[in-house]
Amino acid sequence: MKNEFVEALANLQENEAITIAQKMLESGTMAEEVLELAQQGVDIIGKRYENGEYFLPDLIMAGEILKEIASLVKPRLSKGATARRLGKVLIGTVEGDVHDIGKNIVSFMLEVNGFEVLDLGVDVPPAKFVEAIKEFQPQVVALSGLLTVAFDAMKDTVNAIKEAGLRDKVKIMIGGGQCNENVRQYAGADAYGKDAVEAVALAKKWIGGE
Ligand code: B12
């Protein structure tokens, strides 16, 4: 059933992937394992996109299927992983950018790993991040962005946080698409993470979960 699930997801067979995920959960497969398998499916989808086998609409479709799988898995995590809250992470896609498939994966993986996550969504202006830091009081702020213009938006966001006098209250990580160490330096963030696994590792390191 596990291979079939990965295959169904990789082949973007929505109904099949969801039905198998449901069956796995009902027959006792751990929610965490379903997520790991989903990640394997996503990796295959990413490779097929790079090889020119898949196109934009396929990735959007993949995002939709993942959202549905996430909604199936989440309630089952509440007793285990999500019961122990390690700390708070504020996440959003920066202003001018509406890409959210990767952000949603990061957000989801952080939740699964025990963090309380406030997701501000996409195209989030710097002022909204600042306001949310004041209210939600996260230890970590995660900025996602895939467009080149997002690099400036990331920098503006970090500056706005500085100007609000909140820079020493939060650790800031960035990620998404073309981001790298240079962008991190340019934006003035504390770290760059290449994927959701690194995002979780950074949050753990900073909040002290490990
Ligand atoms: C899907 C997609 C779209 C979808 C987005 C759907 C959605 N709901 O997100 C749609 C069709 C809407 C779209 C629109 C546009 N897109 Co687009 N899009 C893509 C595409 C094909 C895939 C992005 C994706 O989802 N990847 C899969 C996810 C899982 O990967 P990821 O986001 O990188 O996330 C992973 C890591 O980076 C990391 N991560 C992500 N966020 C964070 C945050 C932190 C803190 C950390 C630590 C890690 C982390 O973890 C994730 C999981 O491992 C890319 C091409 C590509 N290969 O990246 C182009 C791409 C990003 N798009 C591009 C462009 C140009 C556009 C448009 C301007 C097109 C247009 N002319 O209208 C618009 C922009 C709209 C806007 N204002 O944002 C360009 C950007 C070029 C540039 N340098 O600026 C790209 C690179 C395509 C290209 N080669 O030209 N797009």
Describe the structure.
The two termini are 33 Å apart. The relative contact order is 0.12. The chain is built from nine helices and five strands, in the order H-H-H-H-E-H-E-H-E-H-E-H-E-H. The protein folds into two domains: 2-77, Methyltransferase, Methionine Synthase (B12-binding Domains), Chain A, domain 1, CATH 1.10.1240.10; 84-207, Cobalamin-binding domain (Rossmann fold), CATH 3.40.50.280. The chain is globular. The protein has a five-stranded parallel beta sheet, with helices on both faces. With 210 residues, it is an alpha/beta fold. It binds cobalamin. The site of cobalamin (B12) has 31 residues, from helix 4, helix 5, strand 3, strand 4 and helix 9.
How do the strands of the widest beta sheet line up side by side?
A: 2-1-3-4-5
> How much helix, percentage-wise, in residues?
55-70%
Mass-distribution shape: globular
- Low-pLDDT sequence parts: none
Secondary-structure element string? HHHHEHEHEHEHEH
Largest sheet, strands/sense/barrel: 5 strands, parallel
Question: Topology, please?
Answer:
Blueprint: H1 2-10, H2 14-26, H3 31-50, H4 56-77, E1 87-93, H5 101-112, E2 115-119, H6 126-136, E3 140-144, H7 149-163, E4 171-175, H8 181-187, E5 191-192, H9 196-207
Parallel strand pairs: 1-2, 1-3, 3-4, 4-5
Helix pairs in contact: 1-2, 1-3, 2-4, 3-4, 4-5, 5-9, 6-7
Family: Belongs to the methylamine corrinoid protein family.
GO biological process, one term: homocysteine metabolic process
Domain B12-binding: 86-210
